[in-house]
Automatic annotation (TrEMBL):
<dbReference type="GO" id="GO:0051262">
    <property type="term" value="P:protein tetramerization"/>
</dbReference>
<dbReference type="GO" id="GO:0051082">
    <property type="term" value="F:unfolded protein binding"/>
</dbReference>
<keyword id="KW-0813">Transport</keyword>
<keyword id="KW-0963">Cytoplasm</keyword>
<dbReference type="InterPro" id="IPR003708">
    <property type="entry name" value="SecB"/>
</dbReference>
<keyword id="KW-0653">Protein transport</keyword>
<dbReference type="InterPro" id="IPR035958">
    <property type="entry name" value="SecB-like_sf"/>
</dbReference>
<protein>
    <recommendedName>
        <fullName>Protein-export protein SecB</fullName>
    </recommendedName>
</protein>
<dbReference type="GO" id="GO:0005737">
    <property type="term" value="C:cytoplasm"/>
</dbReference>
<dbReference type="Pfam" id="PF02556">
    <property type="entry name" value="SecB"/>
</dbReference>
<keyword id="KW-0143">Chaperone</keyword>
<keyword id="KW-0811">Translocation</keyword>
<comment type="similarity">
    <text>Belongs to the SecB family.</text>
</comment>
<dbReference type="GO" id="GO:0006457">
    <property type="term" value="P:protein folding"/>
</dbReference>
<dbReference type="GO" id="GO:0015031">
    <property type="term" value="P:protein transport"/>
</dbReference>
<comment type="subunit">
    <text>Homotetramer, a dimer of dimers. One homotetramer interacts with 1 SecA dimer.</text>
</comment>
<comment type="function">
    <text>One of the proteins required for the normal export of preproteins out of the cell cytoplasm. It is a molecular chaperone that binds to a subset of precursor proteins, maintaining them in a translocation-competent state. It also specifically binds to its receptor SecA.</text>
</comment>
Length: 169
């Protein structure tokens, strides 16, 4: 068999690639918490707990084209108006993003980044709940595109309402 060699001219190797770049550079848990305020009595109660999921996100620009995105996932389980457990994780990632216009950058930070982080946060929450002695909890996938579009629409409606109020003043 003949060996095949692909040589790249030195000048071409030194030229930066053009176009958009999206890269998850580091994944980490920034903070985690699990509380069972009513233990051990909570384990003696009958019936299923009501589960509430709360999501939040924070974006920090940490350098040229480098962003830390922190997805906070909080699960609160209540039974008979008492908190059975509270599980919270702040899943973070460092994302290298270049070559995008501002609107595209904001969309990537608010959709692609949390979409990348959510499975890790969900796995951590699931483990905390199971290790806490509660029945398995499976968090359903989140459509971050839809969440982002809703936030954009709400911001536009608030801006329009503010413009109307400013016009009446």
């Amino acid at each position: 068999m003949a060996e095949e060699q692909n040589e790249i001219p030195a000048a071409a190797a030194e030229q930066p690639a053009t176009g958009a770049r999206f890269q998850l550079q580091k994944l980490y848990v920034k903070d985690v918490s699990f509380e069972v305020p009513g233990a051990p009595q909570v384990f003696q109660e009958e019936g299923a707990a009501e589960i509430k999921l709360n999501l939040a996100q924070r974006v920090n620009n940490v350098g040229e084209g480098l962003y830390e995105v922190v997805l906070s996932v909080t699960v609160t389980a209540t039974s008979k108006d008492k908190t059975a457990y509270l599980a919270e994780v702040h899943q973070a990632g460092l994302f290298g993003i270049n070559g995008l216009e501002e609107a595209q950058l904001q969309a990537a930070l608010n959709t692609l980044c949390p979409h990348s982080l959510f499975p890790y946060a969900a796995r951590t929450i699931t483990g905390l709940v199971a290790d806490g002695g509660f029945p398995p909890l499976v968090l359903q996938p989140i459509n971050f595109d839809h969440v982002y579009q809703q936030r954009l629409q709400e911001a536009q409606m608030q801006q329009a309402a503010g413009d109307i109020e400013a016009g009446n003043a």
